[in-house]
Structure formats: C-alpha cells, structure tokens
Amino acid sequence: MLYGVINNAGYISSIQDEYIAGAGSVELALPEAATTDYGFRYRYQDGAWSDAFSGVADGALMAAYAAIQQAANLVEVKAGKMPFIKLEAERQIVATNWKVERATEVDAATGSTTLAAVYTERAAIRTASNVKETALEALTTMDEIAAFNPTDF
Questions:
Q1: What whole-number distance in Å separates Cα of residue 142 and Cα of residue 77?
Q2: Residue 127 is part of which domain span?
Q3: Are 6 and 13 a contacting pair, CB within 8 Å?
Q4: What's the distance, Cα to Cα, between the start and end of the chain in Å?
Q5: Pairwise CA distance, residues 48 & 29, whole Å
Q6: Per the structure, how many domains does the chain have?
Q7: How crowded is residue 15: how many other Cβ atoms within 10 Å of its Cβ?
C-alpha cells in the first residue's frame, strides 16, 4: 500500500511505500489505483480522494509536471547565481574607494572635478551589474545557466 503526504491544499507532496508514524505530517493511504509514478494526481478533500486532474492522461500529466519541475529548477539555479553578481559589483565598487579619497583631495587642492569621473566609473559598474542580472533572468536552459559567468563584467 502507498501513502501520500499531503499539503494544506490536499495535494500530495510525496509518496511513501510505508506509513511513518509521528513523521509530523499528514499521511493517508492512497487509492488502490495510485502508483508511485502517478499518485500525485490525487487530491484529498472533504474526507475523500479525487482525481485532481481528471480528463488528463497520465503521460500528459507527467510531461506537464516535468515541465513545471524544470522551470522551478531554473528559477532555483538562477537565484543561486544572483548573489555572485551583486558581490562582484560590490567588490568592484569598494575597489574604487581609494579613488574617491584621492579625487576628493585633488579636487580640494586644485579646484578640479576628478571626483565626477570616479562617480561615473562607479555608476558604470552598477549599470553593468544590472545588465548582468537581466541577462541571467533571460536564460532559459540549464546549459545556458551553467555557461553563465556571473562575475565577468
């Protein structure tokens, strides 16, 4: 017999082949027709199981589920790379701190406007970081994400 761990909406979040007492989640015996591959199609609501995807063939259901999983994985992997873009931008901006100090002193001593150039350089780093983030968000395959270098700007 298979058991389904159900979420708050009554959908199955995982399938087990044995009941684990005290697991801290709601576990219910699945309908007899349920299999480990297609048990996710059932929903428990108002004390009874129903086919949450009636009219959808098992193969189509699994293809749709696989597409959703792939999309979720892409989002997760992208989110993991985003902090590296931000850290690189921070590193590059911090590396210009000495230029701000020097330009401030030069401008005070000579009346020049070299500080504006340093601020322009910092703005360019921020712009490049934003472009890199946009490029990461536009990627659509795991191969593209694997080839993406978040720090080359």
A1: 8
A2: 67-147
A3: yes
A4: 55
A5: 11
A6: 2
A7: 19
Q: Which helix (H) or strand (E) holds 44?
A: strand 42-45
- pTM of the shown model: 0.62
Spatial distance between the Cα atoms of 57 and 11, rounded to a whole number of angstroms: 18
**Nearest to 142, CA basis, from 74, 72, 63, 71:** 74
- 55 token code pair: 């009219």
- Same domain? For 140 and 107 the reply is yes
Per-residue pLDDT of the chain (153 residues; tens, 9 = 90+): 788 887 777 878 788 777 666 555 567 788 888 877 777 788 888 888 888 888 888 788 778 878 888 888 899 999 999 999 999 999 999 999 999 999 999 999 999 999 999 999 999 999 999 999 999 999 999 999 999 999 999
Cα angle: 148, vertex 63, 8; to 5 degrees: 95
- Quick count: other Cβ atoms within 10 Å of Cβ 4? 25
| Last residue of one domain, picked from the residues 34, 55, 76 | 55
Residue 83 and residue 49 share a domain: no
Q: If we measure between CA atoms, which residue out of 149, 103, 141 comes closest to residue 122?
A: 103
The pair of structure tokens assigned to 79 is: 């989110």
Given 31, 55, 79, the domain boundary residue is 55
Within a domain: 139: yes
